[in-house]
Please model this.
Amino acid sequence: MMYGYEWDTSSTLAFATSILPILGIGLLVTLQAAAVGYAIALVFGLVLALLRRSRIRAISWTVACFTEFVRDTPLLVQLFFLYYVLPDFGIVLPAFMTGALALGLQYSAYTSEVYRGGIDAIQRGQWEAATALNLSRFQTYRDIVIPQMIPRIVPSLGNYLVSMLKETPVLSVVTVLDMLGLANMIGERTFDYLVPLSMVGLIFLPMTLICSALIHLVERALPKSGIPLR
Amino acid sequence: MTWMQYLAPLLKGAQITVIISLASIVLGTILAFAAGIARTSSNPIVSGIAFVYIVLFRGTPLLVQLFWFYYALPLIGISFNPITTGIMTLSLLTGAFGAEVVRGALLAVPVSQYEAARALNFSKTYTLWHIFMPQAVVEMMPAFGNLAVQNLKDTALVSLISIADLTFQAQSLRNITLDSATVYTLTLVGYFIIALGLMLIVRLIEMKLRRGAAFSRSAHS
Amino acid sequence: MTSIIRFQNVTKRFGALTVLDNFNFEVQQGEKVTLIGPSGSGKSTVLRILMTLEPFQEGKLELAGLSYHEPNGRGTFKASEKHLHKIRSNVGMVFQSFNLFPHMTVMRNIVEAPIAVLNMKRDEAETRATELLRMVGLLDKKDHYPSQLSGGQQQRVAIARALAMRPRVLLFDEPTSALDPQLVGEVLGVIRDLAREHDLTMLLVTHEMRFAREVSDRVCFFDKGRIVEQGEPEKFFTNPEQPRTREFLSSILNT
Model:
């Protein structure tokens, strides 16, 4: 029994249906972790991308190295790092937050590259035209750069959301009771891993497929010329 | 224990990580070509099987796949040792992602190349391997480089099915020493160095391929 | 004289669009025929059908005594791959955009098919390729890659590549349209030399009117999927009968 739900191991189908509500609770945790992690990645990635464009060499170089390092090392080890090292510095976070932070950190390295590519793709003439029109740096970003960036970066950012969603099960390793964590517990108690693990896979599959399809739709719906912010 | 003493167990783990990563990159690449070519087949059964495989492995989390092969499959009487399970799962995942790369690169070869090959009466197989593949492979290399690094990062998960890879050794070390910061920093650096090595290998292969064929895409556009 | 190519009431559609409409056309062995007409009139489609790059829906087509539709043929081409292979062994094609294989040297571009398809020995294939390269004036480029050549040079290699398969019929699909004006001459020169070969049947789609007049035995004017007018070049260009032909010729000669 878990969260007040009994499981029924009389048949495969009965077992599968009886654990569905439990996995549903885990699904909520999975989605929350992805949401928090993605929010961190979107914001922190933008910070990284802007710092990368800093005119101060030391800053842009440090950020470039940091981004590359985070991109090329495993999420699991980064997660362990945060989970065990942060408390040594007096920062004690719930496992869920540590997990979301690790996801956000790893994916901010990816999103920062997306932002950077998006900014670099703006033609030089656009910047020159903005200067010629005497727009301030802020106005240039708000009215010229970002509107043209959006249709270029949204598809890539969307794909990273799907990737991140598929990596959330790693959080179960640090005791987060997401779908996989719960499926493993059910497996331990019933000695039947086949059904709960297969269920987790079967729940993930339509989720990722639908997400990918939605991203594709959004990608096609976005005007290629750009989206004015006001 | 000083950090120097951590190196011996970590290096032992790194060896396992490198072996698993290289093995699954090679096997995954073979799978990627098989499935990618199958996807372009005009036979609906062949391309259908490849499609299901690709969707299944791209659409589900690696950790779920790994646990499924490790914990669930033995329950229906199929079991492998952890190393085999790890390499198999990673190969299947890399193969599924790589298949899309192969397919994309094959579809990117201009249709005019197909027409020229047909006009010269080459067979379909010959056209695929001698006309399309040499042109497509060069275009695949950057994507395969990314996949190789992704594969390396993914190998960390095999520590969870009791394989003594780099991450596993790091966990053991931390449990003994409680020196988390040093152990995990060294581990991350270890992965980073292996990743740099992998990227270097991919770059070298790409350069060799490009030199072997001093051609550019613009030549026949 | 025997017909080597015979279209009988051939109809070719792309979806709702009819490209060839009850098309009838015959070519004699060794004849050099130029196909001209506005774009979209179906002249390139004739070549592409002959090369089996496009299927057609209705009618009969024969090349060197081989029918394009087999009695029990299936698939889009209504013929087996083996049969299409047999047809293609009589035909070569030179494309507008050359379509050389970018990953092969000039020499390999030419010997690849004779070795792989005709099972020719490498020595023999290379001797023959050397001869052909000398003919098109590019022997010194044999170890270059296509990207290192000019458009005109690439097209001359493409002609050599097609000839290496010893086709009885050679199709030219706007061979100079993708070239810079100053490179057109060298390609036309090669084709002019080829036109002297008595046995080779040539079908040429081109916009080079003066050249068409010079090398062809017959000029065919295409419009809307049919041949509106055809005849000897001298008469065709000086005194066309159909108003549509006159209109087309004056529009093209005045630009």
About this structure: Helices of chain B lie at 3-39, 44-59, 62-72, 82-108, 111-119, 124-155, 166-177, 180-212. The radius of gyration of chain B is 21 Å.
